[in-house]
Amino acid sequence: MAGNNGGAYAEVNGLGMYYEVHGAGEPLVLLHGGVGAIEMFGEVLPLLAEGRRVVAVDLQAHGRTADVGRPLTYGQMADDVAALIWHLGLERADVMGYSLGGGVALQAAIRHPGAVRKLVVVSTPFKRDGWFPEVLAGMGQMGPEAAEPMKQTPMYGLYSRIAPRPGDWPVLLTKLGELLREDYDWSEEVAAMGTPAMIVVGDADSVRAAHAVEFFGLLGGGLADAGWDGSGRPDSRLAILPATTHHDIFFSPALAHAVAPFLDAPMPETGGGSR
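That's the AB hydrolase-1 domain-containing protein sequence above. Prediction below.
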C-alpha cells in the first residue's frame, strides 16, 4: 500500500483507480467533485490528515484515474470506492464526499453499509430537485459542446496537467453531462440508512438550505427537542457554514473544522440515526 503522502493505483472493478494516503489514524476516504481531482481540497486535506489516515481518491475519468468503457454512474463509482476500501485491507472506513463525490459517498453507504463507518455529505442533495433551478439548467448544458469553452477554466488546467489522457476531456464532460441530467430520488434509501451521517452545505450553496434540513430530517435530525441533557440528540448532524458557496466550501478550512468533531466522536451505540 502507498505510504504517507504516497500516490498509487488500485485495480478495482476493471478501473485503475488513483489514490493517495495522507496522515495516520482512523481511515477517511475523501471524494472530490465533478471535473475535479484530489487537489481541489487544498488546505482541507492536510487539516483532516492531522488526526486520521486520509485516503484521497480520483474517481473514474477524473484526475489521474483514466476513463474506462462504461458510463459514469453514482452506483458504479460507489462500488469502486467500496472495492478500494477492501483492496486496502480496511474492514470499513469513514467516507466524505463533496458534490458529485458526495453522491458517490452516499451511495457507498446505501449499497455497502458494512464498508462505511461514518458518512459526510458536503453540498450534495439526496434528490435532484435539491439543486436550485438555475443550477439544474447549467447541468443541462454540460456535454461535449462545453469542452472547448471550459478549457479556459482552472479545472481544465488541472486536468490537462495530471490526466493520463488529456484528450479525453470531451469524453469526461459527455459522460458527466449524461449523469447530471438523470433524475433521482434516494429519500427512501436515506431514511432506511443506519450509517451515522453529517450533512454540510454553505449558506449560499447551489444546494437549497431547506433541502439540507429535509435531508437531516430523513436521518432523524431536527424532529424533536433533544432535552436538557441532550439525550434525544440524533446520531447524525447538520452544519450550514456561513458566508460559504458551492464553489469555495471544498477548500475552506471551516469545512475541516466542522466535520472533524463528528468524525472523532465515538460511534453511537445504536449505529444509526434516531428515528
